[in-house]
Each structure stands twice: as structure tokens, then as C-alpha cells.
């Protein structure tokens, strides 16, 4: 007798599990947590507040510096807010492990790969949209401040404003997915947060120590260009003198996400909840 493929589990009322239903479940879990909205509020305050402060600092002399690229004031806070995105991604996963809710999640949907994809998609979309709103508000305020001193953002040129804002929002989503990956890999809130902060913040700082170590240690600086936030800087504000082109920078960010999620999938399949 030939084997029969198992049917998708049926829920009460005749409904069957599907990716859209799992996505909806993950969206409800994420958006009903107070920690999610506290994280978004702090991220928004830093994104908008730092951008406005930089704009005021640039115009404190009474006029904006000539040749100023005002969009830098808008995207500069990402060096700090990306950490919050990564931490939010980590706690979205480890919070379920600490409460035991992950057992209910995997019991409701035994296809662990689908659970991983749903959680990753929800976190990425949520952070992208939230970050996009923050950066647009910051850009409008920064443009108004600089415009009062004779120089505003060049909204008519997509590569000057729109593309950097979109790239910065993508970076926030990438950092959230890195946090998700560490959450599944380590399962510990403290461990996942420490690993996320280490990769996004500590390693780039440590790599700068080798700038004075001579030519024999130059490879460390070259390798550091492929760290997530280093690559993100080249993707957000590309230039001819940047160590990575915009294309290579985006490929690097994609590679970090792919490696993290593949590792998470392997661990999720092989370990008990």
C-alpha cells in the first residue's frame, strides 16, 4: 500500500492551518505586547529627536553649512535605533521560550518552518513600516529646520531623500531579523540580546582598534566592512569612496539574514521546544 501524505491539521470550525493564519497569529502576538510599543516609542523618540537636534546644531550659527547633505541628520540615529530593532526581534522569540508559550505555538502549528517564516515576516514588515513612518517624520522636520536657513532636503531627487529613507527602514528590518535569529539559536533573552548587541554595536567598535595596528592587521578592517551596520551605512548613503558599493552592501545584509534564519530553522527542527 502506498503512503498517503498527511493532511493539513484542521482547526475547530473546519478551518485548516495555513501561512496567512499563522501570520495573523504572530501579528496579534507582536502587536498586543506592551514591550513592543514601548520599544517603538523609544525608537521613535531617538530617531526623530536626534535628527531634529542635529539639524538645529547644524543651523546654530544662523545658516546651514553650504554643501550640507541634510539626509545625514535623518539617518544618523540608526546607529543606535538598530540596536533596539535587534533587541525587539530577540525578545519577540525568547519571550515565548521564557513563558513556555512556544510549546503552544508549535502545538497549534507543528510545521516549525512555517512558524519561523511567519514570525520573521511579521517582525520585518512591522519594523520596516514603523521605521518608515519615523524616518519620514524626521525628514519632514529636518527639512523644515534647514529650509528656514536656506537649505532643505531635496525631495525631488529620489536618491537624495527617498532611497536613503527606504534603505534605513530596510536596515531596521534586517536588524530585527538578526535578533530573531539569535532568539531561536540561543533561546535565552539575556544571551540573545548580548549576541545582538555584540554583533551590531561592539564588534564595529572593536574593529577600529586595529586601524593603528599596521598593514598586517588591515584584513580586520576590511572584514569589518561586512558587519551588518557597516554594510548598512554603505547601503543607505552610497558613495564612490565607500568600501562597499550599494549592491554589495545589500547583498551582505541579505546574507546575514539568510545565514541567521537558516541556522534558526536547523536548530528549531532539531531541538525540543
TrEMBL record:
Record keyword Transmembrane present: yes
Domain of life per record: Bacteria
TM segment ranges: 37-58, 70-95, 116-141, 161-186, 193-213, 247-268
Keyword Cytoplasm tagged: no
Sorted UniProt keywords: Membrane, Transmembrane, Transmembrane helix
Classification via PANTHER family: INTEGRAL MEMBRANE PROTEIN-RELATED (PTHR37305), MEMBRANE PROTEIN (PTHR37305:SF1)
Protein name (Swiss-Prot/TrEMBL): ABC-2 family transporter protein
Organism: Microbacterium azadirachtae
